[in-house]
């Protein structure tokens, strides 16, 4: 008897979720729904992936969670509003929006939803469909065999060469012609990029736990010249007068790729290297998208430990959360294939109420922009614009390959850009090194997005750089100067001492720069919140205007790259904004006064 409960529940759910399911406008003749067009087609799997001939895929029992993304309306009006909310001096500055207000502005047409449901009904999978929480997509959990019928696709197992990682993907899929203009993309289908998302740590080398005590000459207190500790950063970035206790707000650190932080390593790190004597030494771990939070991971991640240790050491008593995000490995044979985790990660935050959101989010993970399909990059970037309008300051690492490594696109030589660093709705952090003077770190990421145009907030400084900088005249043909330029800002990137499995090591990368700058932003956010103001939210319009005088312009050193492909490749740090170090590095004391006055 209990067997009949399941289908009934499914019916009840779908009829609540889709009250207008068979509205007049959504009725289509069945024949129209079978008139399809190819939505996307790849001649070969992307570089680095190959068909796994030996894999056994049971298409009747392996499940896929399909996300049918509906065309949104009103995105550009919403983004105009989001920009006003982030622009100092505008009457709407700081009036961050609740998610339901954003959803109402950008909701897909009812007709789009009804058409898709009509199609799913005709194809016999309507009972497995549900509306995504923000109303922007319809989710269908179905067997591979059913998804193949739905999309006219053929799914196979592909392996990432040399990594033993597998995904179930198709090289082509089709949609009914009548859905054109209603469905923007369907995933997982032809996008393989999930496992190439990588953390931006580039070097790990052992140091003694006592390195900082054997310094000979210190130009800046706590900076030995060979390693960076929280004390060094506090002195270099003018944090030393900041002795008050701060507890308001929430600092967020993103984790992916089964990078787990160790609490006992944090305890060791804090006992040895903490700067604020009154600072807290704990964080909480929140699992996102079926991620996990082991208390004592057998091999803690260097990225996770770095992020957690520096965020904790620099944010005083402000609560810290590590968001351990699952979803990158597609489970073969058992479990359900999902999407790559950025969408799920952002879904998680956008579903939180405003009081539960972190004020600042530090993300040290990225990928080559050219490996991310345009529709996918656009969607993720649009979600970042929503997070900013909700009031979250998002900082993203610029990458560790300078202007690129492969530096070719087909037969064209070009600098390689990074994602999501090139999204105009995040604040991108480049790298510096040394302190007499502080200069650009040679491998720090920088450049011009190939897919996103230049946003208005940086128009003036980027135009100035393009017309006055003389150091890039030999490389103008290798980047698109109309693209969104990054980094926006920079911070130290080399030889950060972290503790991992009880030992101290030095690590290098814009993975160091990002939690450093993000922690200082969290201190600014917490201070504003404690005095009854909103957080800074999306930072860039503030950084490029009022905030810029709180930054130290970096004018020496350069970023390089494209070794063996493009001679002379790179960008120099010069006076004013430049694509090596952006607007410069933080002077916390000055930024605090500026953020309080905004
Ligand atoms: C350069 O970037 C702009 C803005 O993103 C874009 O409209 C244009 O098509 C790009 N040009 C080339 C040659 O890629
Ligand atoms: C450091 O910040 C304080 C404000 O807290 C400011 O008065 C001082 O000028 C800053 N120091 C430097 C060297 O910029």
Question: How is the secondary structure organized here?
Answer:
Elements: H1 5-17, H2 30-33, E1 36-41, E2 49-51, E3 63-70, H3 75-85, H4 99-106, H5 110-122, E4 129-131, E5 137-143, H6 144-151, E6 155-160, E7 165-170, E8 172-176, E9 183-187, E10 198-199, E11 203-206, H7 230-236, E12 251-255, H8 263-273, E13 284-288, H9 302-314, E14 320-325, E15 336-337, H10 341-350, E16 360-363, E17 365-368, H11 374-390, E18 393-397, E19 408-409, E20 412-413, E21 418-419, E22 427-433, E23 439-440, E24 447-453, H12 459-468, E25 483-486, E26 489-492, E27 496-500, E28 503-508, H13 510-530, H14 540-543, E29 551-552, E30 558-559, E31 571-572, E32 585-586, H15 588-597
Helix pairs in contact: 3-11, 8-9, 9-13, 10-11, 13-15
One 2-acetamido-2-deoxy-beta-D-glucopyranose (NAG) binds next to helix 15.
Give a written overview of the molecule.
- The chain has two domains: 175 residues, no CATH class; 367 residues, Rossmann fold (3-Layer(aba) Sandwich), CATH 3.40.50.
- Helices cover 27% and strands 23% of the residues.
- Strands 12, 13, 14, 16, 18, 22, 23 and 26 form an eight-stranded mixed β-sheet that branches. Strands 3, 4, 5, 9 and 15 form a five-stranded mixed β-sheet that branches. It has a three-stranded antiparallel β-sheet with strand order 2-6-7, with no helix packed on it.
- Helix 3 crosses helix 11.
- The N terminus is likely disordered.
- The chain binds 2-acetamido-2-deoxy-beta-D-glucopyranose (2 copies).
- The site of one 2-acetamido-2-deoxy-beta-D-glucopyranose has 5 residues, from helix 15.
């Amino acid at each position: 008897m209990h067997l009949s409960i399941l289908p009934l529940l499914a019916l009840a759910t779908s009829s609540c979720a889709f009250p207008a399911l068979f509205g007049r406008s959504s009725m289509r003749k069945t024949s129209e729904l079978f008139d399809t067009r190819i939505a996307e087609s790849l001649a070969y799997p992307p570089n680095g992936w190959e068909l796994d001939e030996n894999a056994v895929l049971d298409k009747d029992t392996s499940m896929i969670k399909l996300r049918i993304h509906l065309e949104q309306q009103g995105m550009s009006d919403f983004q105009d509003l989001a920009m006003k909310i982030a622009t100092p001096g505008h009457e709407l500055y700081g009036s961050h929006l609740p998610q339901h207000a954003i959803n109402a502005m950008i909701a897909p047409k009812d007709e789009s939803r009804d058409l898709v449901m009509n199609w799913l009904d005709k194809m016999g999978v309507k009972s497995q469909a549900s509306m995504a929480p923000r109303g922007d997509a319809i989710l269908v959990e179905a067997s591979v065999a059913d998804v193949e019928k739905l999309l006219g696709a053929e799914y196979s197992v592909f392996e990432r060469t040399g990594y033993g990682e597998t995904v179930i993907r198709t090289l082509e899929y089709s949609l009914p012609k009548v859905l054109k203009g209603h469905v923007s993309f369907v995933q997982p289908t032809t996008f393989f990029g999930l496992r190439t998302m990588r953390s931006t740590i580039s070097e790990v080398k052992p140091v003694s736990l006592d390195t900082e005590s054997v310094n000979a000459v210190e130009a800046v207190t706590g900076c030995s010249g060979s390693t960076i500790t929280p004390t060094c950063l506090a002195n270099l970035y003018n944090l030393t007068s900041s002795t008050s206790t701060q507890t308001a707000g929430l600092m967020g650190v993103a984790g992916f790729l089964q990078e787990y932080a160790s609490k006992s390593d944090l305890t060791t790190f804090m006992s040895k290297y903490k700067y604020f004597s009154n600072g807290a030494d704990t964080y909480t771990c929140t699992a996102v998208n079926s991620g996990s939070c082991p208390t004592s991971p057998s091999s803690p991640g260097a990225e996770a430990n770095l992020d957690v240790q520096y965020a904790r050491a620099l944010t005083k008593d402000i609560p810290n959360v590590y968001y351990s995000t699952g979803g990158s490995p597609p489970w073969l044979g058992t479990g359900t294939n999902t999407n790559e985790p950025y969408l799920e990660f952002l879904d998680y935050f956008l579903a939180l109420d405003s009081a539960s959101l972190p004020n600042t989010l530090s993300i040290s993970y990225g990928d080559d922009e050219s490996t991310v399909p345009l529709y996918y990059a656009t969607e993720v970037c649009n979600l970042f614009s929503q997070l900013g309008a909700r009031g979250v300051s998002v900082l993203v690492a610029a990458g560790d390959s300078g202007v690129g490594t492969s530096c070719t696109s087909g037969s064209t030589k070009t600098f390689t850009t990074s994602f999501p660093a090139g999204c105009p709705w995040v604040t991108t952090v480049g790298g510096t090194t040394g302190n007499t003077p502080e200069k650009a770190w040679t491998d720090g990421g920088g450049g011009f997005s190939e897919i996103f145009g230049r946003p208005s907030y940086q128009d003036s400084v980027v135009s100035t750089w393009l017309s006055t900088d003389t150091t890039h005249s030999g490389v103008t043909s290798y980047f698109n100067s109309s693209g969104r330029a990054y980094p926006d800002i920079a911070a130290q990137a080399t030889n950060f001492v972290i503790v991992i499995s009880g030992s101290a090591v030095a690590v290098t990368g814009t993975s160091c720069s990002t939690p450093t700058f993000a922690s200082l932003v969290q201190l600014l956010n917490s201070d504003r919140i404690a005095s009854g103001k909103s957080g800074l939210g999306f930072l860039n319009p503030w950084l490029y205007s009022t905030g810029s005088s709180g930054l130290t312009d970096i004018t020496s050193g350069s970023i390089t790259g494209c070794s063996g492909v493009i001679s002379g490749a790179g960008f120099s740090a010069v006076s004013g904004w430049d694509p090596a170090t952006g607007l410069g590095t933080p002077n916390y004391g000055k930024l605090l006064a500026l953020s309080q006055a905004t």
